[in-house]
Amino acid sequence: MKRFFCRGGSRAALKKWAWVALSLFCTVAMADDNVVNVFAWSQEVSPKVIRQFQKDTGIRVNFSTFDSNEVLYAKMKASKQAQYDVVEPSSYYITRMARENMIEKLDLSKLSNYKNLNPAFTHPDYDPKGEYSIPWVLGLTGIFVNRKYYPDDKIEKWTDLWSPKYRDSLLLLDDPREVFNVGLLTLGYSPNENNLQHLQKAYQNLVALLPNVRLYNSSSVPSMLIDEDVTIGMAWNADAYKASLQNPDIEFIYPKDKFVIWVDSFVIPRNAPHRDNAYKFLNYVLQAKIAALQVTETFYPTANQAALAYLPAKLANSPVIFPSDAVLKQGYFQTDIDDNALDAISRYWDLLKLQ
Amino acid sequence: MKHKFQYFSVGLIAGWLCVFGLLSFLVMVVMSFLQHDPDHIALWHFTLQNYVDLFNPIFFTIFLKSFYIAFMVTAACLLLGYPFAYIVSRFPERLQNMALLLLLLPFWTSSVVRAYAMMSLLKTKGLLNTALLSMGLIHEPLQILFTNTAVTIGLIYNLLPFMILPIYVNLERFDVSLIEAAKDLGAKYTTIFRKVIIPLSIPGILGGCALVFLPAMTLFFISDLLGGAKALLLGNLIESQFLMANNWPRGAATSVLLTAIMAIGLLVYKFKSSNKGIHYEAVI
Prior knowledge:
The structure holds two protein chains of two kinds.
Chain A: H1 2-6, H2 11-26, E1 35-41, H3 47-57, E2 60-66, H4 69-78, E3 86-87, H5 91-99, E4 134-146, E5 170-172, H6 176-185, H7 196-209, E6 213-216, H8 221-226, E7 232-236, H9 237-246, E8 250-253, E9 259-266, H10 275-285, H11 288-298, H12 313-316, H13 325-328, E10 331-333, H14 339-354
Parallel strand pairs in A: 1-2, 1-3, 5-6, 5-7, 9-10
Antiparallel strand pairs in A: 4-7, 4-8, 4-9
Helix pairs in contact in A: 6-7, 7-14
Chain B: H1 2-32, E1 34-35, E2 43-46, H2 49-54, H3 57-89, H4 93-104, H5 111-122, H6 127-134, H7 148-172, H8 176-184, H9 189-200, H10 202-218, H11 220-226, H12 234-244, H13 248-283
Antiparallel strand pairs in B: 1-2
Helix pairs in contact in B: 1-13, 3-7, 3-10, 5-11, 7-10, 7-11, 8-9, 10-13, 11-12, 12-13
């Protein structure tokens, strides 16, 4: 290699080629305008919905997924120039993103299908005026158990998971807030706790649970449940339902010591590069038929009440996916907590995973 | 024309390394001295706090754990890789190429995909358990997946070629007449191996160890997938600082520290081996 750099006469040539090489790196892909960049939770938008949207509108969807709100938030913060047109944060992150001016107020006049939504979900605590978000999927976090392995165990509360007989066997969701919800609820606190002392107690409570924890995962839960890689732990109702279709031994339990209801919603980031297409996408997925297709494909409950008419009876009547009002009353909606509390949770989360 | 092509390819590689190696590393170094700010990537204030933060018991624990796993992986790769490299280097040339091709063949698939493949081998109802159960060797499925053992197996599988190749390159150029000389002087084969072959292949061994050790501490997706997302490796810590804690400066400090440790290790080796080289030549 040295040879090339020593011959004085060729220096100009070398420079030229170096520039060619450099400019190759800087080549930016030609901008394609008829696209919409969607960034959503993995497994939460059915590929069929995307394919139909592309077919019906001719707009190409650049679809990518994330596994935690923290990742979504970090990626949005990392680039000054907005690159996504539609993103799907969980409820409590919407408050945060609105406060930090990261997302736009929606022009509801562009969303003719907005009326399909259940009004109970259009003015939630995390977006009281319903200006920023379109609820897309709901979920309830509870306990799953494979009855083949634990046929007679009485499991009806989160606290039952602390029992020493479940050593090294629990699945916990790979999500700091979800795990801390369990830590807080079992102590009788609210999952939307800002009190740092209560959070510390919840942390100590969770440390006591650690010997029972086998793994953290939130993105491929159904397959792990079906293959019996884990036989007990926490799961979202949709995942447990999906798994129980193939492995009937799986039972889903709504814990008696309360549980959390979360809502993942679509929002439009500030300065979205393809705003018009973002609205087209949102209005498209708000259609009753599309929302129903989404439910039959993913089994996540929907806030789209018009969609219920299009669902098969078995799905619409499933107590796991659409629990009764009496059960729902036991649920807390997850809301935003302040920065100090969030910092504390994230610090404790690192500690939990390190032990 | 040929020269132009050479300039082009050298320029391309140099440009590549400058932009994606040197430049991004420099960004990390600068970042590691900036102040953390929750609303921005970093604040433009010089601080040493990120490095001070690393000197706390938790980070120390994960450093140790990570070192331990990387050490086990490196040792296992050496034990498996050295005999393999030695045997292959004694093959006829055509067989050698074939063996190396087979060694590198799995690398045509993405390592994440191979980690998933490893999961399906190790899981409760996976290939390994099914085979052992049907042979009657075990009666309960082995719970390997989501343990440290699974992470270690995954890392060894992924990194073994990086141990074999440097050792093979070294042994392949080995001067056979040295062995003959030792034989003539009456050395037994074990003695030859211990006193001639191993000492002369030390550069290959150390090169292999360096190539295995650092990735073994940082391949976070292996411990995410096979270890059940419990933070076992330094790579997980760096990842979580960037993506979960949103603390880029500290993540940068952690990775700069890791690079520094590796650099010091390599410098020590270089210093020692240059001493040894002189020593060796003097003996000849």
